Structure formats: structure tokens, C-alpha cells
Amino acid sequence: EALAIDHYSVPMNIAMVQIYTSYLQDNKRAETGLVQLLDELPADNKQRSQVYLTLAIIQTRKGSSFAKETIKYFTKSIEADPSDPKPQIALANYYRIQDQLDQAVKQLKKVLEAHPEKDSTRLSLAEIYIGQKKWKEAMTKVDRIIKNNRGMSFTKFRAKLLKAEIFLSRPNDDPYAALKEMNVLVQITSRD
Description:
Number of helices: 10
Radius of gyration: 20 Å
């Protein structure tokens, strides 16, 4: 049985489907409702992006055997509203979870090209580079985050932790450099 959609506006329908998806875990009903919504939305409506993104999230819950379908919905979400970084970041995270790190890096770089202010995306990229032992690339991203953020935001804090991790993990590095980074973090957190 699909969601009853003729009594509500489109944004209300999207909200209803997301509630079913998130809280009730009624994926089949939500999926049917979302497909109905797509039929009602004009082709140029940016809300289609949100509908496709929700469909992609439903597909991720079905497991890796639905990877093609999941990527298809993420891609349609991006195409429906290329200016919104959320579906692009979600696709990158999906690739990362699926251990398709090259695809994740490629997607994160696209996000940074369009949204260079997204330090959280830069942080995700640095984490992947650390996992791949691409120390120079990771350090470049981490240093840029630290430079971009005044004060101590969560993203800057994570970047400083990653910088210490790089110093500890890189061969032939001075372990005292990592201690110095950690000491700065301890001093900052003890002031709060």
C-alpha cells in the first residue's frame, strides 16, 4: 500500500516519506510513495533531488547487492540539483563504505571544486588519504583546514588530530611532532 499523497503538498509528502523511512523503517511503503511523488513533480523541480536522495538511502539499507540501484539514485539526485552538495557527499560516503576509495576521492574532489569552503569534505578526503598512506596529500588537506578555521571548530580539532596521526604514522617522522600537536589540543580543551 502506498502513502496517501493527494491530500498534501509535495514538501509535506517528502516529509511523510522521510518519516516512514527514518523512524518506521517501512522502506517498501516509503519507496512506493517516493516513486509516486516523482510522477507528480515537474521534471525541473529541485525537490526531485531530495526524493532521489531518499530513494538512494533506502537502497543502501537493502545491502551491497543493490549497489547499482543505489548509485543510480544518488546520480539522479545530483543531476536534479547539481548545486546541492548533500547528495554528492552522500555518494562519496557510500563509495567509501563500499571500499571504492578511488571513486570516493573523485566524488569528494568534485564537491570541493564546486564548494571550496566545505572543510568537512576536505577532512573526509584527508582521512581517505591517511588510510591510503598518501601522507603529503593528507597533510596538505589538514593544513588547509587548520589555516581556514579561526578558533577551535570541531573540524579544526579533527584536523589537528589527523595531523598528529600523520606524524605518528609516517615513516621516519619525528614522534615529538605528534606530541606537540597533541599538547596543543590538550591545552585548548583544558581551557574550556
